[in-house]
Each structure stands twice: as structure tokens, then as C-alpha cells.
Amino acid sequence: MIEINEVTKTFPHKKKPITALNHVNLTVKEGQVVGLLGENGAGKTTLLRAIATMLTPTSGQILVGGHDTVRHARHVKQLIGVLFGGETGLYDRLTARENLTYFGTLYGLSKHETKVAIDELTTRFGMKDYLDRRVGNFSKGMRQKVAIARTLIHDPAIILLDEPTTGLDITSSNVFRELILQLKKQGKTLLFSSHIMEEVQALCDSVVMMHKGQVVYEGQLEVLYHHEDSEDLNYIFMSKLARGHSA
């Protein structure tokens, strides 16, 4: 479970501080797949980075699996898998296998556990043909598959994904979507941001809509459809932004 309590994050600026998150409250229950929606600059990436212990909230508290992201950052990192947009976190001079082995070791897996995990992930993502090639020459789709494998190498209970299908071809995007459905069946907790409404509708139980650092809606999709008397998520999203926080 992820619990976000009155979290504010400001960044220093020449004229005045920039508020990226403004008293955000949010709960993601265990086993949920939650879509995070918002225009550029809404605070989605800042929120995900704060949950991932990469940013420290200016005020408020974030609990991941009951652990405070500031005081218990090491415990939180063991629980989560993270993938941020184009930041694959891979080393170009290493092969895909060497990258995955490195991250498996980093997460404390034994050699045997790492090998088993790599074999399973290689089969799942169809990476056998390029597993022992250097990542530096990979296509975007190949890199993204390895990056997702890196995210899952330690079998995390909670997975955070920021625009994971941006720039991917149709085949790679479909592989990702199938993965989300598999992880959902396994009871994993997922929070991912996306601009693709069809993707969110197909994969998510609930959505969180953000605007100017605030949450303007949090809840199940079916409840949202009923309340708005529409299943056009793009229309609902734009309408929510136009009406503001109180809507």
C-alpha cells in the first residue's frame, strides 16, 4: 500500500519557490493498478519520484508498505521497482545480461536467484536473441524491454512507471500492456502515469487526476463513469481540469 499524507514539494527559484506538489493526499491499495493522469507540469513525475525516495517532500509524509520514504528509504527501495520514461538506467557498455546481473546483485539476490530471474524475464520479453549484446546499440524498444526487466528483477511488490510506453512501437507497447495484466493477476500494486487514455481504461482499476500539483480526482473508473454519465475518459479529464479541484 502507498499512503501519501499532505505532501508538498517546492523547488527553489530565482523569483519565488515553485510548488510542484501542493498538499497531496492519496492512497493506493495493495493489488490495485492505478493510472496517474495530468498535463505536463501537473506534478506526476515529482510525485512518483517522491514515492520512489528520489525526492524528499518539503512537508508531509509518504508511506510505502508502512515504511516512511525518508526515514526508511532502504526498506522502501527493496519493495519497489521503478521506471521513469526515457531513463532506462542501463549501462551502454554492458550487455543486457550483464546489466540485469548487476541490478540483481544490487538488490541482494544470490547468483542463482539472479540467473533464474534473468531466464524468466528473457523468456517473458523475448530477449534471447540480444541478451548477450551490448545495450548501447539497442533500438528503443529493445532497451525498454531490458529496462522493464531491470525494474522487475527483484520481484518488487510495488511498481512505479512514468510514461512507460512513450516512443515505443505497437508491438513493444502491447508487450508492456500484457505485462501489466500479468502483474495485476499476481497481485502486484502498480502506479503508472500515461497520456494514453485507452491504455488507462484497458489496464487500470482506478485513476488519479492531477492539475497544478493537486489531486482533482481519485477513485474507481466505474464510479467516475457513473458520476460523469460518460465513458469518454479524455472528455472527463478535460472537464475535470476546467472545473478545478472542487469538482
Provide the structure class: alpha/beta
Shape: globular
> Kindly, what is the distance between the CA atoms of the first and last residues, rounded to a whole number of angstroms?
26 Å
What is the assembly state of the chains in this entry?
Answer: single chain
CATH level 1 name: Alpha Beta
Mean of the pLDDT scores?
Answer: 89
Superfamily (CATH H level) name: P-loop containing nucleotide triphosphate hydrolases
Structurally, the number of domains stands at: 1
Organism: Pontibacillus halophilus JSM 076056 = DSM 19796
GO molecular function, one term: ATP hydrolysis activity
Protein name: ABC transporter ATP-binding protein
Domain ABC transporter: 2-237
What layout of secondary structure does this protein have?
Elements lengths: L1 E10 L6 E11 L4 E5 L6 H8 L7 E6 L2 E2 L4 H7 E5 L11 H11 L4 H15 L14 H13 L5 E5 L7 H16 L3 E5 L3 H7 L2 E6 L2 E7 H8 L4 H11 L4
Parallel strand pairs: 3-8, 3-9, 6-7, 7-8
Antiparallel strand pairs: 1-2, 1-4, 4-5, 9-10
Helix pairs in contact: 3-4, 4-5
